[in-house]
Amino acid sequence: MISFPDPPTTVKKILLVEDNLLFRRVVESALVKAGYTCVLSESASEALELLHSETPDLILSDYDMPEMNGFDFRQEVLLNPNISDIPFVFLTSFTDNKLVLEGLNMSALDFINKETPIPVIISKLNNIIKTLENEHVRSVRELKVAAEALNVKSIPTHAPSVSGYRIFYWHRGYRGYPGGDFIDFVQVDSRYCFAFLGDIMGKKWKAWFFTFGFLSYIRAAIRFCVLDQDFNLATIVQKINKLIYLDESLQNILSSLSLLLLDTHTGRVHYTGAGDLPLISYSPKTGRTSTVQSAGLLLGLLEDGFYDNQELTMQHGDQLAIFTDGMIDIPSNGAKKSDYPFFVEKITPYLGKPDSFELIRKHVLDLIDDNNQMDDASIIFIEKQ
Amino acid sequence: MILKVEEINRVVQATILPEEASLTNADAFKEEMISIIGRGVRLVIVSFENVNYIDSSFLGSLVVALKYAMPRNVDIYLVSLKPDVKNLLTLIRMDRVFRIFNNYDEAMGTLS
């Protein structure tokens, strides 16, 4: 029996474009056996159609096909900026040197002869994908280092210590990218501390870039309101909303926001939200988990965002959590779904324990990895002492 | 194409084709919506009948389309949302900015 080499760490999707049914089936079964997901097209035009909705990690294409050949297909792919970056490999029985050169000149990564034994083909693909992955990891790392050098952080390095409260937070960027989620704390004085998190709609670099604009506005609005001795959260968020609404450079960018104000004198927590998911709160006295929904709209959506004020009186042991929508996205039978009640159900067994957040981290958060994460995920967890 | 489009009397029925409305098709969706809105229609009814999952990138595009539509006096209605998608939209108060109907017929019934 021939054993296949190790596949890359995460499941990769390969689009196979091949008009010969038998060969298509043979390669598909080898790829699936080697741990890949396979999408099949029997013609170049079908593949182009499919690429509107699918984003494979690699395209493996035959050269000799009726209607549109592999080279014309490659040209079409290169012309579409949405898909032109997808690694492309030719797999063909045409091995004429001139043809191979022409293929490679179209930014194809390899030109594999169909006569090559299947395990060797799989090894070659594994190598290509691993090399690209390593390259990618290196680039992300370099950008992160650059961002850190510029001291632009969308996630703090530690939680503040606030008398009478225990504060925890957790964040994981989508597939390790810095993304559109942000978390921050603003400690005003010994009495008040703001805690907030939000999600810029979008993923990866584009969203990450805008987080700093949003964060600056939010921090500034909080500071200005504090200077005016105005601690009304609805007013603060409306100010942030208006700034963002009127800022032309942020015209097409929207963000959710969950904003908390912890008052150490009264033990109350004030809450308002902008298009965020409802807050979860737990009281050991009643043993009940409940949710609090605010009324406000996403930041930057309308000039008036209908923000409201909610107040939670926290007793000893009471806990609450705010989080972004990446937290409630779950893979389900190969598809994806968003399920808020499911997330509430998942964390509920760990609420009301002396080390609730550690348990949630261990049993829920640490299980989120590249294979099941679908968006940036962030949570702030607060417990009254 | 992300949308299957039918237009009658400046009312557009636009059905989202992919099951996953996400980062991969959010930009294309936004562009298609903006080109529909830009050609002078009065209402775009977006059907989610195929959509099982929507992520924040796609929600962002939907909202950007709305922001583009409002000053042009174009309405956007959402129809045929599956329960998970509808729950998410309601949880984040999108039902306050979009009119949501069970299906095309119900949405069309509001026009007289």
UniProtKB/TrEMBL annotation, chain A:
Sites bearing 4-aspartylphosphate, chain numbering: 62
Keywords from the UniProt entry: Hydrolase, Phosphoprotein
Signal peptide as annotated in the record: none
PROSITE patterns for the chain: RESPONSE_REGULATORY (PS50110)
All copies of domain Response regulatory, residue ranges: 13-129
SUPFAM superfamilies xrefs: CheY-like (SSF52172), PP2C-like (SSF81606)
Gene3D superfamilies: 3.40.50.2300, PPM-type phosphatase domain
Residues that span the membrane, as ranges: none
Highest taxon in the source lineage: Bacteria
Protein name per its UniProtKB record: Response regulatory domain-containing protein
The species this protein was found in: Dyadobacter beijingensis
TrEMBL record, chain B:
PROSITE patterns given in the database record: STAS
Alphabetical list of Pfam families matching this protein: STAS
Domain STAS: 20-111
Superkingdom to which the source organism belongs: Bacteria
Protein name per the record: STAS domain-containing protein
